[in-house]
Amino acid sequence: MTPKQREVWELHQQGISGRAIARQLGIAENAVRNRLSGARKHAEADSAIQGAMSSVGMQDAGPLHSGWIKSEGASLYFQMPKDGGGASIEDIAEHIKASLADMKPKEAAKQPPHCNDDLLTIYPIADVHMGMYAWGEEVGEDYDTDIAEARVKRWMQSAIDASPPSSTAVILDVGDLHHADSQDNRTPQSKHQLDVATRHFRTADASIKTLVHCCDMALAKHSKVIVRILAGNHNPTSYMITLFAVHAYYRNEPRIDVQLDPSDFFIMRFGQCLLASHHGDKSKPERLIMAIADRHSEEWGKTKHRFLWTGHLHHLKSSEIGGMLWQQLRAVAPKDAYSFNGAYSGKSEIRAVTLHRDKGEVLTVVASGD
Fold it and tell me: Which phi and psi angles does 217 have, rounded to 5°?
């Protein structure tokens, strides 16, 4: 509810007529009616939304700017403090959750008939950089939001089709799903200027639709789907938009688990296999592996096959370090002008790795090329 809507609404709740409110505020009666109409929509919104907004102080915020979050069957006006307003990541996360609370959930999907309980397939998706712009005349390959969305869907379909019908699938976003964290179009830490293809609103919408499409494809092949979305250095806050939206969308789907975990680490045990992931921007793989062994010593001790997937640097690299196989993944996105002019190399692809609960890795599928 905007400050002007709230002002009119509070007077209306006191029993003051529209004409009297117009005189008191010095505005037209038509303006009063319009503000009341808008205020009534928010006042009659689901109580959970109101409670979540109230809990983070959104109801009584000071000077605000605003926008709309829309989904099928729902439309919600939201407000955020200008220039961040000192809002913490937790505040923003709660705000996003509240904004998506009315999203229509997907109905439960039909379970595939034949799946192998001894197999798990992980689909790590690294560095999509949704919203990035690359000009083919400059860097040799065009890239924008539409191309990114189509590429992920096509490559994921190829990877899923070529993988066995394992009972469990893990869709793992390894970070940097978004190229920019906000409309500021700069990296949050270094403030490096980014080449973007569209508005951040469009990027958020495309990232949600893309991940939902990937989840639907996985549900058609696997009995259970685990979804984990990690933060990257390009999207330490905006990744939560996709995370909470996908979680809300599948909240009535018993076969999908969208993990709401704020940790930068993904950790999972599957039989004799230990699966781990981190974007790779904050520590070298040796340090990450030592941290995993220390913090998850029980899982480490009960497993023989251990895997760590990272992204961030966009080129393929692999090494066995202290009892764990580390693999730095290639990016989905091609090189932008910064990477191209800096002579960075690396091809684009998506991998699918199938693990046997006792034997470890049994199959790797690579999807690439347009």
Answer: -65, -40
